[in-house]
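Thread: Modeling a multi-component assembly for a lab meeting

Hi all, long-time lurker, first post. My supervisor asked me to bring a structural picture of a complex we are working on to next week's group meeting, and I have zero experience with this. I have the sequence lines for every component (421 residues in total). Could someone generate the structure of the whole assembly? Inputs are pasted exactly as I received them:
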Amino acid sequence: MIYALVDCNAFFCSCERVFRPDLWNRPIAVLSNNDGCFVSCTRDVKELGIKIGEPYFKYKQLCDEKGIVLFSSNFALYTDMSDRVMSILSRFTPDLEVYSVDEAFLDLSGFVNRSLNKYVEEIQNTVFKLTGIPVSVGVAKTKTLAKIAAGLAKREITSGGVKMLLDGDVVNKSLSKIKVEDIWGIGKSSGLKLKTLQIRSAKELIDYKNDSAIQRVLGKNGLTIKDELSGICSIKERDCSIKKSIQSSRSFAGTVSDLRLMRETISKHISTACERARAQGSVIGSAEIFFGTTPFSSEDSRQQFVHETVSFNLSTDTRKIIKYSLSVVDEWFRDGLKYKKAGITLGKLSDNKNIQLGLFEKSDSPKSEKLMSVMDKINAKDGEGTLRFASCGTADREIRSFKEFRSPKYQSSWKELPKVF
DNA sequence: TCTGGGGTCCTAGGACCC
DNA sequence: TCTGGGGTCCTAGGACCC
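Re: Modeling a multi-component assembly
Sure thing. I ran the full set together rather than chain by chain. Output:
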């Protein structure tokens, strides 16, 4: 096999730059919900020591000093740009696996006879020309090696954003420079375990003879990764078109200490998630409700973090799932606590088609299905939340989030279309 | 006095990813 | 004032059964 991993460079930042060409050479960063953390940074920002996931308030001063241009996250823009990039990539292979919002694996096995290098450059150039998004490409015999190659493509200035890891000597040389915890699928904790076996680099991992020791510390995943690094394809394609769980959650801009507000928040999360579940044709079997105070140290408040799962007969009826979920809220909510975050995860999702064929039980009445379908249609046409349940509260009590640096909704709002003079 | 062996299924939690 | 939001997969251990 020959895989190419195409990875968009600082994707969210690049999306913002497409509409702000004046920022092409400026350091920029994108912040998470409530402008809490950094979620995307251009290379020059990373070089200042700012890492993805770090809280913004720690670096506020540095950002001011260095003139870093900040953006609040604008996911409507990023998903739209992602769709465009992926659709272009699909022209280059019959087998495209979209791995995340900014990455995809292309099976290029059929192209070995062409000049692979040229083809890859063509992919890179086409994406940039048609979307304005710069991408790096790593090419190798397995997905794990392609991930490593793409990482090298980004790091090595001379690479032009493309790195081929096909020749055995080149692969070995590269692997000896890769720290074990930087391998795709091995994190901090597994990295430490491997160090107890004196394995520090990717090369040391593939040269390690005692497979059972690797399996003991990493589980069978460890051997899969070892094979992949040795050039043996062992990772199956994941089908991500149907989600197995669907989550909706947010941190509050301030804190919430009011039961009614918490009930409304949970109801809204349930409504959002159920709509997404119905949209992918799923029937829901369980809901996990969670809410909690800040996990970070704060002297003035007691801490609590609730995680409760309720299971029920398969259903798509938002009303029913809200009812179950609110009973959890009522049971666990404590007066006087300052809640910082709340959300839900829908689980035990099954395919609606199988249910209709009678393989499983479903408890909803035909009336309820009709109601949900009408609601979804109206909300799709006239906007999110046009029709909602009373338990979600009224719009004026909406819990606002901080988005100090939001960019316009260039592609999803007529009022905010970019203007060309 | 003294308490099997094997199997399946489910769930919670950990680890990892972007 | 202040620390994201979404996912996936694996494993260990409990419940249950014969």
